[in-house]
Amino acid sequence: MFDFLKREIRVTRNIDECNKIRELLLENNIQTYVITNTLTNPGRHHGIAFIQMDAAYEYQIFVKRKDWEKANFLIR
């Protein structure tokens, strides 16, 4: 279970979007935490044939609960 003091701010499959959100929040002194889930079999070296890499990973971005409102305002 993830720390109950953190709250999810965004879920995306786009690494560029994930990085932009993290940079914006960091510029505003909000620490982020990311959990990456692979939607393909992690034991296979080459993944699933014909799957786009943008769809292969899901990035869950979290912030501290006390920062959630400010973070949500900044990324909207």
Textual characterization of the structure:
It contains three helices and three strands. The model has no long low-confidence stretch (mean pLDDT 85). The chain has helices spanning 15-27, 53-56, 68-75; strands at residues 6-12, 32-38, 57-64. It has 76 residues and is an alpha+beta fold. A three-stranded antiparallel beta sheet has the order 1-3-2. It has one domain: Alpha-Beta Plaits. It is 33% helix and 29% strand.
Record keyword descriptors for this entry.
elongated, 76 residues, 3 strands, 3-stranded antiparallel beta sheet, Alpha-Beta Plaits, 33% helix, alpha+beta
Secondary-structure blueprint:
Layout lengths: L5 E7 L2 H13 L4 E7 L14 H4 E8 L3 H8 L1
Antiparallel strand pairs: 1-3, 2-3
Total domain modules:
1
Largest β-sheet summary: 3 strands, antiparallel
CATH architecture: 2-Layer Sandwich
CATH superfamily descriptor = Hypothetical protein rpa1041
Number of helices: 3
Roughly how much helix do the residues carry, as a percent range? Answer: 25-40%
The outline comes out as elongated
Average pLDDT works out at: 85
